[in-house]
Amino acid sequence: MFIRNCWYVAAWQEELTSQPLARTILAEPIVLYRTASGQVSALEDRCVHRSLPLSMGRVCGEHLVCAYHGLSYDHAGRCVHIPAQDVIPKNAQIRRYPVVEKDNVIWIWMGDSTRADETSVPDYPWHSDPGWAHKKSYRHIAAYYELIHDNLIDLSHVGWVHEKTIGGTPEAHSRAEVKVVRSEDQVSVRRWMRDSVPPPTYVKAVDFKGNIDRWMEIRFRPGLVSIYVGANEAGKGVDEDHYRNTFGARIFNGVTPETEHSTHYFWTAAHNFKVDQPAATEALFKEVYATFEEDKMVLESQHSRMRDLPGAPTIDLISDAGGNQARRLVKEKIEEELRHVPVPA
Amino acid sequence: MFIRNCWYVAAWQEELTSQPLARTILAEPIVLYRTASGQVSALEDRCVHRSLPLSMGRVCGEHLVCAYHGLSYDHAGRCVHIPAQDVIPKNAQIRRYPVVEKDNVIWIWMGDSTRADETSVPDYPWHSDPGWAHKKSYRHIAAYYELIHDNLIDLSHVGWVHEKTIGGTPEAHSRAEVKVVRSEDQVSVRRWMRDSVPPPTYVKAVDFKGNIDRWMEIRFRPGLVSIYVGANEAGKGVDEDHYRNTFGARIFNGVTPETEHSTHYFWTAAHNFKVDQPAATEALFKEVYATFEEDKMVLESQHSRMRDLPGAPTIDLISDAGGNQARRLVKEKIEEELRHVPVPA
Amino acid sequence: MFIRNCWYVAAWQEELTSQPLARTILAEPIVLYRTASGQVSALEDRCVHRSLPLSMGRVCGEHLVCAYHGLSYDHAGRCVHIPAQDVIPKNAQIRRYPVVEKDNVIWIWMGDSTRADETSVPDYPWHSDPGWAHKKSYRHIAAYYELIHDNLIDLSHVGWVHEKTIGGTPEAHSRAEVKVVRSEDQVSVRRWMRDSVPPPTYVKAVDFKGNIDRWMEIRFRPGLVSIYVGANEAGKGVDEDHYRNTFGARIFNGVTPETEHSTHYFWTAAHNFKVDQPAATEALFKEVYATFEEDKMVLESQHSRMRDLPGAPTIDLISDAGGNQARRLVKEKIEEELRHVPVPA
Predict the structure, then answer these.
(1) Which end of chain A has fewer CB within 10 Å, C or N?
(2) How far apart are CA C117 and CA C107, in angstroms?
(3) How many structural domains is chain B composed of?
(4) What is the pLDDT of residues C95-136, one digit of tens each?
């Protein structure tokens, strides 16, 4: 169902304070918190004594203290203090999860902790690059996470679902030139739409007067779908050499399964134009927000109908190539884990 | 659980517009819509591509278009257009359901479509007969559909549940003369209450001064329970010859299972007195509406208790004769279908 | 799961009127009512005819009458009248439950009625003793009942959960001297905290100036946990001889399982100081109420987390001695019933 040996977005950096945060990830209840020294930790959200969620407790110095009988836990999930009891049972231990704080994101590793390689945490420099401005959001989506992958990877839906925002001409989206490349750990999809009508969002952003050449790069890795889109006046070219210095926006899409039926969706919208104008950041954010609300409605309805009619036959379209590659990658990783990975301690 | 080869009420005629309507019938999600030419269609409410409910889409001309990637479907449930893709897969097909528009009602056939005989759609001329005026309603009932049959067929409950409206004397209802006749496809129940106190609703309608002779005819067919009630001054007789030209009301009761635990209830109240006075129609409607709200509360509480205590022993009363005949008829039809009917395509 | 041969609190005395009361106990829906003669009865909440809850009906004289078709039941659960039908079927009978009205409490026996010994109903004289004043409450707790036992029996949580009300110093609670005594039918726990900081509630009640000696007596029987707490100025002693005439409060805790996942919690707070001052009763009540709201939040979160992670390993602390004895007692009683008790008629 889920890839475990993978870095997922657990939270935005600023969500982590001395007030513990409860979040379910891959169907496991987790408490996230930041201690007095600033260190971020993630533990099983359950006191080993009587199962109260530790997220109801409080941080004291470097420890997390249970709200029921005052048991204290360290970063490793070991119970290190029991009020009025000198001997701490050896099995007074809960699971801890590796976490990394990077690029304003808290990343968590849900699998075998001995394989948690911090150098494999995705880079996302556009959250701190001065050439880009961004704004964050979080949405809870009542849908299976792979439906979100499909949605982000196959942008042929843009003209239908988002005709009022980023759409443009439906058929132009459907007829876009597309190139899908699968490597071991990721799927990249590139799309080009030459000489097409600019969508409302783009016109608002940079005031295009005539038709445009559009390009979209989607990079899927389990846990993160990075999208880089942009446009130029029609005829000016959509090769990398041409578009690197023109109007562009980057969407960070942290896709973290909560349960089999729901997903945490962490996203940011960054742009490389008018970066010193908060109103421009806000305007882009609002457009993307509206777009994602449209997607949320589609995804949740789709998920709900699939639950109503499990196993109903479906067909694939040509435009599903990228999404299907992503599904294959996820399936392979899960199967590999089931073969090789020991049960986490 | 359900009879499939049967015409059920799917909707009121005026509910069907170019805006698709989602409705679950016999636990199957269905989309109902009217195309530009006025034709009504019913399809499986699921795009064959990625399972979005088609009811979120829109009608374009004679086609229904999915809101996610723009696939178009015709009346037969065939996908006839995929944007930017010339070849349509052969299995791009969803189920369609026969529908008939008649007497202001949209009837649907849920079983084997080769057996859907339009001449077997029930007649209900009183929705258009100028000698009668009527008003419509729809209620969602969180109860198993056969509980509604019981309720409509055994009117001995009227004195207890509806004492404030159509009741009259409880014991008079319980002691009514009753005649039950079962044929292959229906059960008819006739009741006569001679020289009884007129209930408040009747007095409001036609201002009876003294006691009355009442009669009630209930005709049960799977999907539709037709009720014809009326009264005359006491002593004037309750034979057909006498009552055809006196005060009468007809209740149309479309009983369409939604799921095992819920039912669509379509009803109209028609009357043959003061037919040119909308206030009389409204007054009767209000009385019947109040009555059915009382029934709804009973039915839902009953259903809920039966789910709490499945298999608890029960007893039958003499007055259950008609309801039990209806249950037997439903059981026979279901068993017959399980024996003979092929799985619908 | 539940002890059946045991008196549970079904309701407060004043809840029982001629208006029937519906309450689920040990997962069985029950109707409680008081007839014209003042007698209290408890029956299965289901008409034997068509399963409508009898709690929707009405009391007529000594009978309970179903709201659907008017069947009447006596105190023994026998159907004694069917409108318009002379013969009453022999199996027109529903289950009745022994009930006893005592000390303002309606007690119910859920097991084998031949073993319902009214002399074994718990005494609680402080609901009528003029030396004590009290106020009642009822709370619905979405938690397994044994979690409430644990909470009431092991008061080492008081310093953590209730620091703002009855807490005082957390470590003092954890280091309290504790004596646990198990007999066949009950577990008693006594705790003493000498020379400790008075908690806010106690200061409000009797204005202690310095440290206090506190004592707490908890007596657990299935269905009822009686708590007697009090305090004296530090050094004045906490032996029975000393404290009987000082500041004391008694908490009645009727713990009645509703389902496997919820519990009826009937409690009163009584006090032996300022018994003629309603404001004192109210002030104590408010403090205890606030305390129990804190417990409710803990209990429900704990229960919910245990459902999320069934079978997760736990540890016991020294302070669990009393609670664990109570769990053992409950387990023994249930096992004994499964061995010896015939299925109730």
Answers:
(1) C
(2) 12
(3) 2
(4) 999 999 999 999 999 999 999 999 999 999 999 999 999 999
User: What distance in Å separates the CA atoms of residue A36 and residue A56, rounded to the nearest whole number?
Assistant: 18
Q: Characterize the bridge pairing of strands A21-25 and A28-34.
A: antiparallel
Is the pLDDT score of B153 beyond 70?
yes
Predicted local confidence at residue B214, as pLDDT? 86
Tokens found for residue B84: 């930017």
Same domain, C132 and C278: yes
Q: CB-based contact (8 Å) between A313 and chain B? A: yes
Chains near B, with 3+ CB pairs < 8 A? A, C
Q: Residue C127 has which token pair?
A: 């609901």
Beta bridge partners of A232: A213
How confident is the model at residue B158, as a pLDDT? Answer: 79
Burial (CB count within 10 angstroms: exposed 0-12, middle 13-18, buried 19+), residue C312: middle
- Mean pLDDT (chain A) is 92
On average, the pLDDT of chain C sits at 92
Question: Is the pLDDT higher at B332 or at C239?
Answer: B332
Q: Using CA atoms, how far apart are residues C92 and A257, in angstroms rounded to an integer?
A: 54
Q: Which amino acid type is present at position C4?
A: R
Check if C260 contacts B (Cβ < 8 Å): no
A343 in any annotated domain: no
pLDDT score at B344: 56
With respect to residue B345, please indicate whether it lies within any of the assigned structural domains.
no
pLDDT for res C192: 87
CATH code where residue A315 lies: 3.90.380.10
Chain C residues in contact with B321 (beta carbon < 8 A): none
Q: Percentage of chain C with pLDDT > 90? A: 74
Which residues of B fall within a CB distance of 8 Å from C48?
Answer: 313-315
Residue C168 has pLDDT above 70, yes or no: no
Distance CA A302, CA B51 (A): 6
Strand pairing class (C7-12; B262-271): unpaired
ipTM of the complex: 0.91
| Final residue of a structural domain among B77, B98, B120 | B120
Tracing tokens 């009301």 back to the chain, one arrives at B249
Enter the pTM of the model.
0.92
Question: Among C120, C140, C172, where does a domain finish?
Answer: C120
Asked if residue C195 belongs to a domain, the reply is yes
DSSP assignment letter at B57: S
Q: Scan for tokens 């909440």, then name that residue.
A: C45
In C57-176 the beta strands, taken as DSSP E runs, fall at 58-60, 63-65, 72-73, 79-81, 96-97, 99-102, 105-109, 133-141
Pairing relationship of beta strands B63-65 and B58-60 according to DSSP bridges: antiparallel
Give the H or E element holding residue A336.
helix A321-340
Contact B79, B92 (CB under 8 A): yes
Interface of A with C in 57-86 (CB under 8 A): 66-70, 82-85
What's the CATH number where A72 sits?
2.102.10.10
Range of the domain at A75: 7-120
